[in-house]
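Run log, item B.
One chain of 336 residues. Sequence copied directly from the ordering sheet:
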Amino acid sequence: MTPSDRPQYDPRTLLNSQQLIITVIDPVTYKVVFQNQTSQAKFGDISSRTCHEHIAGCEVPCTFCKLPKTIETGLPTASEVPLPNDEHLLVQWSKVQTTSGETHIVETITDITDLKRQQAETDRLVKKLSATNRDLIQANQLLQDQSVRDSLTGLYNHSHFEQTLKHLCALALRAMRPLSLLFVDLDNFKQINDLYGHTTGDQVLREIGWLLDSQQGPDRGIARASDFAARYGGEEFALILPDTSMDGALSAAERLRLRVTTLTMLPELSALKSRSFSLTCSVGVASFPIHAGNPNDLVVAADNAVYAAKRAGKNCVRMAVPAAPPPPASDPLVGS
């Protein structure tokens, strides 16, 4: 098809066929030199009038107007304009040359209200989804914590203690570093429940939990950040002391024993103090691998040390008995 055979269109007809608001502006005077029919339907006939007064209602060129930048750079520019009625417009400017060599600006206006509302709704849903995800993560974390913690004291429970002890013993063996275990058993705890009720008994257990919890810091508790405390069962507690020798464990056990005797000074346990009840504990100490060569035997050694403390009159610390050395290997030649 030769150029003469191609369809010919009136430029005004093409511009009037568009649903966009199209306005041609003289950049020197800001006066409108052409409007398509969509522009006229929106603003009326504003030919030879300034665009900022009759389109945007501004006495001077609008702050969002990028017409000067388009003239300066020759590149198209655009601004998103929020309106007081919660509508949004996308205003674009592009530079054109007339057949007579004059420079004009073509301004197009697109109503993007629906798009912005969809974006706002999407943002709202994304934020809601993010908040829901955070809630789910927190709920899952809470469920995970509840599955490994004792509900009364907040310390770790028996099953998690066993898993952690195996893990820490393996680390100690690999690094050839000491590890110690304290078993703490409250003395005469049944008398507390019988004399003062289970509410007071539960509060005693909570205070022991606070005392052993490594998250409480040195001002409230006795445990280090690396220590692991658990409620082993009933009124019996366990404290794993990584990287702690037998002497260090004995010292920690004695500090713990003394701190337990001061718990009756707390307002929460004032009922015990009013009747001069002595709150004490018996502590058994066992060190790995001196007293046991595996986690199960370490628990047995610490537990036996607690019973030794009970037999010694309670309110004291006792060390476990060293593990017996393995029997020597038999000589296959003997007796042959």
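Observations after the first pass:
- The chain has three domains: 10-111, 116-148, 150-319.
- The domain at 150-319 is CATH 3.30.70.270 (Alpha-Beta Plaits).
Flagged for discussion on Thursday.
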